[in-house]
Write a structure and sequence with these properties.
four-stranded antiparallel β-sheet; 70 residues; mainly beta
């Protein structure tokens, strides 16, 4: 869950989960830049962006997991 601290409301609905294990490495699960919130969705591992006032986040990263072949 992400909460807008100005409005004290959830940024997106219950179908999304901005949780990762990246904090174990010194990172974070979400960031706000230029009024857009970027977050990693726990369910599919993709990064999404949501603009203030929008209801549905838009994907930033590809839908299929990429594998390293090197």
């Amino acid at each position: 869950m992400l909460v807008n601290t100005k409005t004290n409301k959830d940024v997106f609905g219950r179908d999304w989960n901005a949780r990762t294990a990246v904090h174990e490495y010194g990172g974070g699960a979400a960031i706000v830049h230029g009024g857009d919130a970027y977050f990693s969705n726990m369910g599919d591992g993709r990064v999404y962006k949501i603009k203030e006032g929008d209801d549905v986040p838009q994907p930033v990263t590809p839908g299929e997991r990429q594998t390293c072949t090197t």
